[in-house]
UniProtKB/TrEMBL annotation:
<comment type="function">
    <text>Catalyzes the synthesis of GMP from XMP.</text>
</comment>
<keyword id="KW-0547">Nucleotide-binding</keyword>
<comment type="pathway">
    <text>Purine metabolism; GMP biosynthesis; GMP from XMP (L-Gln route): step 1/1.</text>
</comment>
<dbReference type="Pfam" id="PF02540">
    <property type="entry name" value="NAD_synthase"/>
</dbReference>
<dbReference type="InterPro" id="IPR022310">
    <property type="entry name" value="NAD/GMP_synthase"/>
</dbReference>
<feature type="domain" description="GMPS ATP-PPase">
    <location>
        <begin position="190"/>
        <end position="387"/>
    </location>
</feature>
<feature type="active site">
    <location>
        <position position="165"/>
    </location>
</feature>
<keyword id="KW-0067">ATP-binding</keyword>
<dbReference type="InterPro" id="IPR014729">
    <property type="entry name" value="Rossmann-like_a/b/a_fold"/>
</dbReference>
<feature type="active site" description="Nucleophile">
    <location>
        <position position="75"/>
    </location>
</feature>
<dbReference type="Pfam" id="PF00117">
    <property type="entry name" value="GATase"/>
</dbReference>
<dbReference type="InterPro" id="IPR001674">
    <property type="entry name" value="GMP_synth_C"/>
</dbReference>
<feature type="active site">
    <location>
        <position position="163"/>
    </location>
</feature>
<keyword id="KW-0332">GMP biosynthesis</keyword>
<protein>
    <recommendedName>
        <fullName>GMP synthase [glutamine-hydrolyzing]</fullName>
        <ecNumber>6.3.5.2</ecNumber>
    </recommendedName>
</protein>
<dbReference type="InterPro" id="IPR004739">
    <property type="entry name" value="GMP_synth_GATase"/>
</dbReference>
<dbReference type="InterPro" id="IPR017926">
    <property type="entry name" value="GATASE"/>
</dbReference>
Length: 513
């Protein structure tokens, strides 16, 4: 997957994986020889925000199309293929945006076979291809674009003007699969079972007779990574769980009980609540809180490591550190084109480079939904595998204002009620997550029982999202919201108001801090 605009590339890579073909994203700036050196069975060129005529617009070496590797261009990738190979792309100002009707002129073509002559596709472009390069057959058009798809079976080059990766393109997945299976002749064989087997072998080979440790956060990623490594090397692995006192109700107990029961892993739980609360005393600034939590986390973890190392028998040194790094993390850190630092996301396993451990990151190639499938395959309980994301700094960044023990207790109660009701209403899978935020420095007047109260509001922040990069506020049923509100104001002392956050991301981030 050659990435011409980060927004699309990850989604296309996911769709390719859904077609059970392994895919890897590379930046469009990578030299073509380097791309070819990876020996791809097929190459996909993504869409991107640029016009092929814009100054500094990304280009591609013609050699990519002449290497005998099947190529599929989408949107910008399609136009680039057209211009590079001698076709015509006009800057006519004929824009097409949104759902468009595509007229397929060659219904039996490699890409379109078995799909209707008229189909709905998602367009988003300014320039338009008016003539295909020599040797190509035009296979579809729209009212605005004469060449909306072209194919060259002899050279195994294909392209579509639209975005097959988005669900609005009704037959998009089929067209992508047609390219992969028919155009490129790939047999779909990439499954989570294969991933698990391959990783088990790799981990055993890498770790050998040595020992490994893993920081468990209670989240899906570190749990699945730990379970995988545990399955590979058994008692050579020790997991460390740092309880920073910013966890939700029942969370530590769940890790201690459910995770250990499911995996039989050796677990070291460090109770560091006092330490974190002391370090956070008097701090209200979100970035400062995040940095303090990150720093303390590393210190506690290092200490735990030292203890494990000290207790390890001489002939079995602890050489490896297991982390639940996912593919989007890898892509985002590799993509590094000056993305703004919105907030200091603290990676729970993120440790300083001078630590003397080699990393084991068995999930580096996987997306979140694939990690969940691996977790299922390993027999982890649903409560762990389907857990919604929870930030490393925990409730510490859900209290707007200073973090204190009393405020944490209060928020923990409100959060537990919201989670209980959302689960009872069967909404857990529908929403991405629902942070509950305590506005600790805001007070409002209420009337509860017979008297006046002067308490704090909590905010419900239910969001739906595919990858947390963007999110929409979830339209929760009113009766569920009503129940949560009634219960929180009745059951949580000092909270006399529940408000609903109806902001998407952007402009609001998911967490308040
Ligand atoms: P934001 O607030 O940036 O959050 O829209 C996006 C997603 O990331 C989670 N999040 C974090 N996860 N460490 C984490 O492990 C962090 O520091 C952190 N901050 C936010 C957040 O819950 C959401 O799912």
């Amino acid at each position: 997957m050659v990435d011409f605009g980060a927004q699309y590339a990850q989604l296309i890579a996911r769709r390719v994986r859904e077609a059970r073909v392994f895919s890897e994203i590379v930046p469009s700036t990578m030299p073509v020889e380097e791309m070819l050196a990876k020996r791809p069975r097929a190459i996909i060129l993504s869409g991107g925000p640029a016009s092929v005529y814009a100054e500094g617009a990304p280009t591609l070496d013609r050699a990519l199309f002449e290497a005998g590797v099947p190529v599929f261009g989408m949107c910008y990738g399609f136009q680039l293929m057209a211009t590079t190979l001698g076709g015509t792309v006009d800057n006519t100002g004929a824009r097409e945006y949104g759902r468009t009707s595509l007229a397929v002129s060659k219904p039996g073509s490699t890409l379109f076979e078995g799909t209707p002559a008229e189909q709905s596709v998602w367009m988003s472009h300014g320039d338009a291809c008016s003539a295909a390069p020599e040797g190509f057959t035009v296979t579809a058009s729209t009212d605005v674009v004469p060449v909306a798809a072209f194919e060259n079976d002899a050279a195994r080059l294909y392209g579509v003007q639209y975005h097959p990766e988005v669900l609005h393109s009704t037959y998009g997945q089929q067209i992508l699969e047609h390219f992969l299976y028919r155009g490129a002749g790939i047999t779909p064989s990439w499954t989570t079972t294969n991933v698990v087997e391959e990783q088990l072998a790799l981990i055993r080979e890498k770790v050998g007779g040595s020992r490994a440790i893993c920081g468990l956060s209670g989240g899906v990623d570190s749990a699945v990574a730990a379970a995988l490594v545990q399955k590979a090397i058994g008692s050579q692995l020790t997991c460390v769980y740092v309880d920073h006192g910013l966890m939700r109700k029942g969370e530590t107990e769940q890790v201690e009980k459910d995770f250990v029961a499911a995996t039989g892993v050796q677990l070291k739980v460090v109770d560091a609540a006092e330490r974190f609360l002391t370090a956070l005393a008097g701090v209200s600034d979100p970035e400062q809180k995040r940095k303090i939590i990150g720093r303390e986390f590393i210190r506690v973890f290092e200490q735990a490591q030292a203890e494990i190392v000290a207790a390890a028998p001489d002939d079995q040194p602890v050489e490896f550190l297991v982390q639940g790094t996912l593919y989007p993390d890898v892509v985002e850190s590799g993509g590094g084109t000056g993305t703004a630092n919105i907030k200091s996301h603290h990676n729970v396993g993120g440790l300083p480079e001078d630590l003397q451990f080699q990393l084991v990151e068995p999930l580096r190639q996987l997306f979140k939904d694939e990690v969940r499938m691996v977790g299922q395959e390993l027999g982890l309980p649903e409560e762990i595998v389907q857990r919604q994301p929870f930030p490393g700094p925990g409730l510490g960044i859900r209290i707007v204002g200073e973090v204190t023990r009393e405020r944490l207790d209060l928020l923990r109660e409100a959060d537990a009620i919201a989670r209980e009701e959302l689960t009872a209403a069967g909404l857990d899978r529908e929403i991405w997550q629902c942070p509950v935020v305590l506005l600790a420095e805001v007070r409002s007047v209420g009337v509860q029982g017979d008297g006046r109260t002067y308490g704090h509001p909590v905010v419900l922040r239910p969001v739906s999202s595919e990858d947390a990069m963007t999110a929409d506020w979830s339209r929760l049923p009113y009766d569920v919201l009503a129940k949560i509100s009634t219960r929180i104001t009745n059951e949580v002392k000092d909270v006399n108001r529940v408000v609903l956050d109806i902001t998407s991301k952007p402009p609001g981030t998911i967490e308040w801090e």
